[in-house]
Amino acid sequence: MLVVKGMRFPIAVILVCIRWYAAYPLSCRYLKEMMEERDVAVDHSTVSRWAIRFLPLLEKIFRKYKRPVSGSWRMDETYIKVKGVWKYLYCAVDRDGKTIDFLLTAKRDKAAAKRFFDKAMQANGVPEKVTMDKSGANKAAIDEINANREKPLVVRQVKYLNNIVEQDHRAVKRITKPMLGFRSFQSAKNILAGIELMHMIRKGQMMMEGADKMSFAEQFYALAE
């Protein structure tokens, strides 16, 4: 359950604002105008603070209800601008396009790729095979993982097979574009967690009882209950 203390606005207002922000290509200023039409006076900076504070908490709750994924992974990374500097969002999906995991990193190297794989495998188990592009850093990270395994992971470096994860990146970029970059690494990390959360809900990855009869919005709100 999401605990909200000392807030001037009802939790229902907060949840509507942060859901819209994570689900649609809207700036906080647009959300301010939209709430004004509903007789709710909220500053755009307040909406931003709500998103940074509450979206990662809801994404963490969601992980308790996340459906299992298949053992065939597709992984890739994309660029995300933070304070005018490019950072890197690693992501993996399974063969059905379901999100496995994601991680924002400051660098794009073997260590970053290894952190991503460790995080994804800890939460989702060890895959049977991993498909990636020709990135040497990503391959080096998998080679290090395989060095400690009796049965190595199958690695496929075939770019066209990664189209499915590249589509996921485009969906994230569509939401972040109106935000015009992030002001800090932590705010980027928190808001991206919310964007990925809404993406997973849309993919039907929530396994909460009754979720199949709920709308996407209802599933999001159910996480706060």
Give structural notes.
47% of the residues lie in helices and 16% in strands. It is an alpha/beta fold and 225 residues long. It is globular and about 60 Å long. Helix 5 (136-146) links the parallel strand 4 and strand 5. Helix 1 crosses helix 7 (185-202). A five-stranded mixed sheet has the order 3-2-1-4-5, sandwiched between helices. It has eight helices and five strands. The model has no long low-confidence stretch (mean pLDDT 93). It has helices spanning 11-23, 28-36, 44-62, 110-124, 136-146, 163-176, 185-202, 216-222, and strands at residues 72-82, 85-94, 99-105, 129-132, 154-157. It has a domain at 69-183: 2-Layer Sandwich (Nucleotidyltransferase, domain 5), CATH 3.30.420. The longest helix is centred in the N-terminal third of the chain and has 19 residues, at 44-62.
